[in-house]
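Example record

The entry below shows one chain as it appears in the dataset: sequence first, then structure tokens.
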Amino acid sequence: MGSFLCKFSASVFHGRFSAFVASLLIAIFLIPAEALAAPKPLNAVTVQDKIVKRGVNGWICVEENSGVALVGRIIAINPDSFTMQLPNDPEPVTVRYAEVIDLRTGASKGFWIATGVGIGAVAGMAVWGFVHVHNLNEEHQLPGIPSLPNPVP
């Protein structure tokens, strides 16, 4: 059993797996630097659109140009500001759209799609590996002991 696993792992690491890792590294290095750069500064119209899209009772995290970071639930949306209820503060806080320099609304739909695809790929590879390691369809098995012909008297 041990020699089979050694041969299997050697064929995996020297075959398609190495090509997959090489392709993955090439794709990572070809990502434009702009995609990894800091996000563009927000303007009031963009902030208002994102707040309206998130809606009342949605949780958000904002950073104001004064350096104060606030995390809380949106309780009111106004034309020039919005009001948040912070978890440990009984008083609501009003924030003007023009004062927001960073806004985080949580994971995007694309993140959840990528996460689902990743989990599915890992599960598929696990099933594929299980089937091929345990050889469930019994291919490549050694033949049985051949029957010897009757001895000649």
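Notes for this example: Strands lie at 59-64, 69-77, 81-85, 93-96, 100-104. The CA atoms of residues 130 and 136 lie 9 Å apart.
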